[in-house]
Amino acid sequence: MIFKLLVLFIPIFSFGFDKDFKTVNDRVPLEFNYLFESMKIGTHSPSDKLKLVGICKELDENLGLLQTEHIFLLLKSEVIKNVLEYKHLKVRAFDMTTPLLLRMEEDFSKKQSLLNPFSQWIWRSIIAELKHRESMGLITNKSFNPNSFEEAKKLDANRFARYLNYILPWIDKMDSLSASEFNSLTREVSWIILRRLNERSLLFKRFATTATTETKVTIFNIPSKLLELHPEDIKRMQSDETPLTLKEESEKEKLKAREQVQGVTPDDLSTLSDEVSKELEQKAP
Predict the structure, then answer these.
(1) Looking at the DSSP assignment, which residues form a beta bridge with residue 220?
(2) Residue closest to 62 by CA, chosen among 220, 171, 169, 189
(3) Helix, strand, coil fractions of the chain, as percent rounded to 5
(4) CB within 8 A of 185, min separation 6: which ones?
(5) Residue 114 and residue 179: Cα distance in Å, rounded?
(6) How far apart are CA 209 and CA 198, in angstroms?
(7) CA distance 116 to 124
């Protein structure tokens, strides 16, 4: 019974996210749902969990009056745009060839089980794009050079060369990072995407009157217990204070009791001593 009572007072964010905290799937694109699910898996600190719930709540409020197709396209475009435009540091040069593509596929098969859903989506999307260019004859055993193509194919090659400026940095990270490191990278990108989405959602709420509807739609299902938090719990989570475990709580109570006993003076015990003496005297023959 004591255990059950103690559990009631442990803040909800000290555990994993509630399974009912989820997107309404028919209103969000697949890549955004992968991002959201990965953030639920990879967000551990109480302050970050609180921030994730807060952003989702604001997105719900700011985008809820837009038409469903507009919400869908906004989420999709922001995910793709911010993934491609993410500023990577120290990018190595690569020759885009068929052997490189084969190596990426082999590496993905080894890392796949350790990658979160959003990381897997990035890997699959880039590999699929490269395989498509391979089927067009743009990626071969020779190093890719747009100037080696002629006529109509050169137009495709120049377009692919521009696209490579965005995906080669990701290929570098796919090649050099472990699965765990890659998950950390995509989590960082996910925070950027969510923040920028939230900024854009405010603009839509203020100015996109022609795209709004009278019926508010729900993008996220957020359980009430994640929203109706006590101010003290919110303050504790924002500072990343973790609740005491049952063992720590027990030790704390023992220490408190010990300090109370050590602080007792003879005068504090006098009344009790007198009462005990009287009781003994009465029982004495």
Answers:
(1) 23
(2) 220
(3) 70, 0, 25
(4) 173, 177
(5) 6
(6) 17
(7) 12
| Model pLDDT for residues 45-73, shown as the tens digit of each residue | 888 888 998 899 999 888 888 888 888 99
Residue with token string 């898996």: 41
As a whole number of angstroms, the distance between CA 269 and CA 48 comes to 51
Structure tokens that stand for 16 in this block = 């994993």
Structure tokens at 55: 């952003």
Tokens representing 81 are: 């745009």
**Torsions phi, psi of 220, nearest 5?**
-120, 140
pLDDT in tens, 102-156: 999 999 999 999 999 999 999 999 999 999 999 999 999 999 999 999 888 999 9
**How far apart, in Å, are the Cα atoms of 204 and each of 69, 79, 136, 207, 262?**
14, 17, 39, 5, 64
Longest dimension (CA), the chain: 123
Backbone angles phi, psi at 255, to 5 degrees: -65, -40
Interatomic CA distance for residues 9 and 230, integer angstroms: 11
Alpha carbons within 13 angstroms on the beta-carbon side of residue 177 total 22
Contact 22, 220 (CB under 8 A): yes
Q: From the CA atom positions of the chain, what is the Rg in Å?
A: 30
**Global pTM value:** 0.75
Separation of CA 110 from chain center: 23
| Beta-bridge partners for 276 | none
